[in-house]
Amino acid sequence: MDRMRDVREAIGEWISHIALRSPARLALGTFGAVILLFSGLLSLPAATASGERAPFIDALFTATSAVCVTGLVTVDTGSYWSAWGLAIIALGIKVGGLGIMTLASLLGLAVSRRLGLTQRLLAAGEARASGLGDLRSLLRTVVVVSFSVEIVIALVLLPRFLTLDYGVGRSIGYSSFYAISAFNNAGFTPDPAGLYPYAADFWMLVPIGLGVLIGSLGYPVYLNMVRGWQRPRMWSLHTKLTLIMVGALMLVSAGFLAVFEWSNPDTLGAASTQETIGNIFFQSINQRSGGFASFDVGQARETTWLLEIVLMFIGGGSGSTAGGIRVTTLAVLLLAIVAEARGRRDMEAFGKRVGTEVLRGAVAITMIGVSVVVVGTAVFMAQTDITLDRALYETVSAFATCGLSTGITAGLPPEAKGTLIVLMYVGRVGSLTVAAALALNKQRRVIRYPSERPIIG
């Protein structure tokens, strides 16, 4: 007993040492370990409908896509995996949506009733808490919002599946799966045909779309809105920018999608006006991160692909289940452009000044994201004979953890699947987290060089 206690203490001290020295590396390692765990579970014969062991590359791809809440698949989710396999995928989505470090802190809080400094720092980084003092309230908000929204969505969808004669057990399983997948912006569907058969079924599309929208806002926004629901004017700048950017991008997306696809008979052109409008708004929510599709994206026009590539790269809110560079990053870049165009020294919004360090972070996140996508697309094209338009769409979807696809994922060679696995992993843990994990040390310079302004443009 004493020896076991000594081993546990030694392991705890080792983990604490790594966490304090490099929390980013610990987060990367933990996330990778969880992906491998779910890969092993999906490799079991009981996880497939045929009872045969799934190829490891497909099990690893599906596990990565689930834990990274992406939605890209190499095999049909509804027909290839068994009920046990679907349960594993749903659990992977839930774990990935909450965030590994956040989940670890929740478990630690439940056991010890208090959080250590290391756990607080790690969870604050994962959930984008504004400060350590907000962490306990933020974690409570994470649990309440995520489970409440998922339960409500499942209860709304359950009667619909019962009317389709799915049976009680299957209806409960499907409604729960869709609820978890929607709120966590995962895009997985347990139906073999996906959402295509429900393109005119608003009983299905509305709760799923609302779940994706709520999940893409971010836990800091929920916390701020819950605390100040009676005084919207007192909401934080982050909350205001997130809500404005999400609403604006939805309208822009819906407008361009209507222009590009209204007359396309292979997507929206053959539907009624009511169905078309409903699908446009449903797709405008999912284009940034949700990953659900009510029509065949592979049949859409290339202009629509370009629109979706841009929207996927932007993604959702910080600290949310969405991916991409995040809407507040785009907002800061736009504020910098406005300030420069007006000749102002500071970036300002809603009576607040945005510091230059925030702009540096936004530029860094954007440039790292662009670099990862460019390199990933080049590698992906070298591994396949796929054209640039489809290759760029697939790699951006993987990096932005969106999950939309033009239909090429299932036929990819193993090495191309590996490239998408890496992109999903990098996109979920965050570009800056990867950069911090690879950095050997930090340097604090006491001496600063004299400034000089180069000519720009």
From TrEMBL:
It is a multi-pass membrane protein. The chain crosses the membrane at residues 26-44, 81-111, 138-158, 202-222, 243-260, 309-337, 358-382, 420-440. It comes from the Bacteria. It is found in: Cell membrane. Signal peptide: none annotated. Keywords: Cell membrane, Ion transport, Membrane, Transmembrane, Transmembrane helix, Transport. InterPro entries: Cat_transpt. The keyword Signal does not apply. The keyword DNA repair does not apply. PANTHER family: KTR SYSTEM POTASSIUM UPTAKE PROTEIN B (PTHR32024:SF1), TRK SYSTEM POTASSIUM UPTAKE PROTEIN TRKG-RELATED (PTHR32024). This is Potassium transporter TrkG. The lineage of its organism: Bacteria, Bacillati, Actinomycetota, Actinomycetes, Micrococcales.
